[in-house]
Amino acid sequence: MSHTEDLTRYIANFVDELAKSGLTDVIISPGSRSTPLAMTFREHPEIKEWVILDERSAAFFGLGLAKQTNRPVALVCSSGTAAANYYPAIVEAHESRVPLIALTADRPHELRDVGAPQAIDQIKMYGSYVKSFHEMALPKSTAEMLNYARIRAARAVHEALSGNPGPVHLNFPFQEPLIPDFTLKDLWGEPIREPYTRWHDGKRRLPESFINQLAERLASLQKGLFVCGPQMDQDLAEAVTLLAENWGVPILADPLSLIRTGSHSTGNIIEGYDSFLRNEKIRAYLKPDYIIRFGAMPVSKAYLFFVKENQTALQFVVEQDAGYREPVGNPTEYIYADPVLFCSDLLEAGIISSSSDNDWLTTWKNFNSIAKKHLVKASVGSLTEGEAVKQLTDVIPNKSTFYVGNSMSIRDVDTFLMAGSKKLTLLANRGANGIDGIISSGLGAAASGNPVTLLLGDLSFFHDMNGLLAAKHYNLNITILVINNNGGGIFSFLPQFHHEKHFEVLFGTPLNIDFQKAIEMYGGSYHNPTDSSELKEMLLASYQEQGLSVIEVKTDRTENLHWHKELWTAIEEDILKLVVQ
């Protein structure tokens, strides 16, 4: 057979097996060496291709789409630094457990390490940040090699999804000519509808004897605490809230836990904990006997202090499969089990509720009510960052996706998103906590067709402005709220703020950029409210628009710092009146 037929059938079988294994979307960045993959993906009738020019943006776009759909997304790029530009998103996918399949084209072996253009060492280039790496064999169309291509495609999907999901990397060496021949008969191989290779995974469940033993241990303890950090299991909310109500245990619910909002009961949810755990006396007053945490570590730094100060409390971390996400270093018991089954099994054990301390739950609820009284109160004067986030959480549509940037954005959402029946899917790139690729990630989530609102700061917006091209190119519907405090607002809350000589140059880093011109360049509508009522009107109007809608709220960093501190002080003072009684 000719080289072209070898190439065509080999790649066609690989791509077809990805589709049979459940892959529906591929993000392609243009390049010559990746031609066989790019053209074949576009030819396949069951895979949707998205063409994103910048590889860094493309990888984050795929990350957002994979987060939104909970399905693996493939990335295709050419050789050389194109593949290197995937690195930040690969790191984030690894840390936040998102299934990506990076398919990098490469020079054939004879053109490596000889000074050929666009030839860098791509072997295991993502290191330990991918779950697996495989250097694909040179294309051949023998039955044995076509089976090999299918097996490798199926394995890539399985490895990306199995256990803790994450990225995998396959490197494809291609010799020229690179153009496939799609006129070949039986292009996609034998017309079988079933995958060539299948895996059957089951949910992890602990033995009944262990559940009963754990329940008996906790029965003698009066002050329990459930903590729900960032996680993506939609079914956990119902299970953990039911258990908490049965046991009389408060739930500290991170905004990314998918627990704060929804149709489940929210009676035991404590959403204002970050605002009052900032105070050392309050933390000491709320000393727990045990803590059971689901998901990753919460966003709240105040909670981190709280955990550090309670090393003697029994602490459990429930993980779906494996992992050691406990940065404090406290003595911890890791429970590797399906969290929903774990909650239902503990509920069935049924020996805790009679010994729970009702005063404990009441205290948490009272403190939370005080915090909420201050947090929901409207601001007087200029439009603050917190007020902007409050307005957004109030009007964001039900059954929509809320993608949140890092730094101050996620912290303000942590503070001001109140528990309620509105069904929201909250997403954020909290694996590595970077500000890069946030626009692209939000647009990737929007590519699923679900309404998306993206909240981020001006530095994050600037860092990924070229990601806006996807909104224009594919007419994606997204509302973006940019909080522009002209620089790195979060640093005002850190010790660096007090070093005036260096602060503005190294940390404040004002941009002094007119974003309106960039937004209009990408075909978006631009809005700049001056007060809360205007912001609310513009947000509501944006949800009726098609395409890209950007609302910019301009604030002052120093004013924002004082406003937040005054709010936290007022909450602490009111709660301390109860603590000292």
UniProtKB/TrEMBL annotation:
Cofactor detail note: Binds 1 thiamine pyrophosphate per subunit.
Similarity comment: Belongs to the TPP enzyme family. MenD subfamily.
Matching Pfam families: TPP_enzyme_C, TPP_enzyme_M_2, TPP_enzyme_N
Biological role stated in the UniProt entry: Catalyzes the thiamine diphosphate-dependent decarboxylation of 2-oxoglutarate and the subsequent addition of the resulting succinic semialdehyde-thiamine pyrophosphate anion to isochorismate to yield 2-succinyl-5-enolpyruvyl-6-hydroxy-3-cyclohexene-1-carboxylate (SEPHCHC).
Organism domain of life: Bacteria
Catalytic activity from the UniProt record: isochorismate + 2-oxoglutarate + H(+) = 5-enolpyruvoyl-6-hydroxy-2-succinyl-cyclohex-3-ene-1-carboxylate + CO2
HAMAP family hit by this protein: MenD
GO biological process: menaquinone biosynthetic process
EC number assigned by the record: 2.2.1.9
Gene responsible for this protein: menD
Chain ranges of the Thiamine pyrophosphate enzyme TPP-binding domain: 440-553
This protein's name: 2-succinyl-5-enolpyruvyl-6-hydroxy-3-cyclohexene-1-carboxylate synthase
PANTHER family cross-referenced by the UniProt entry: 2-SUCCINYL-5-ENOLPYRUVYL-6-HYDROXY-3-CYCLOHEXENE-1-CARBOXYLATE SYNTHASE, PROTEIN PHYLLO, CHLOROPLASTIC
Signal peptide: none
Keywords: Magnesium, Manganese, Menaquinone biosynthesis, Metal-binding, Thiamine pyrophosphate, Transferase
Keyword Transferase attached: yes
InterPro entries to which the protein is assigned, alphabetical: DHS-like_NAD/FAD-binding_dom, MenaQ_synth_MenD, MenD_middle, THDP-binding, Thiamin_PyroP_enz_TPP-bd_dom, TPP_enzyme_TPP-bd
Residue span, Menaquinone biosynthesis protein MenD middle domain: 220-403
SUPFAM superfamilies: DHS-like NAD/FAD-binding domain (SSF52467), Thiamin diphosphate-binding fold (THDP-binding) (SSF52518)
Pathway noted in the entry: Quinol/quinone metabolism; 1,4-dihydroxy-2-naphthoate biosynthesis; 1,4-dihydroxy-2-naphthoate from chorismate: step 2/7; Quinol/quinone metabolism; menaquinone biosynthesis
Cofactor or coenzyme needed: Mg(2+); Mn(2+); thiamine diphosphate
SUBUNIT field: Homodimer.
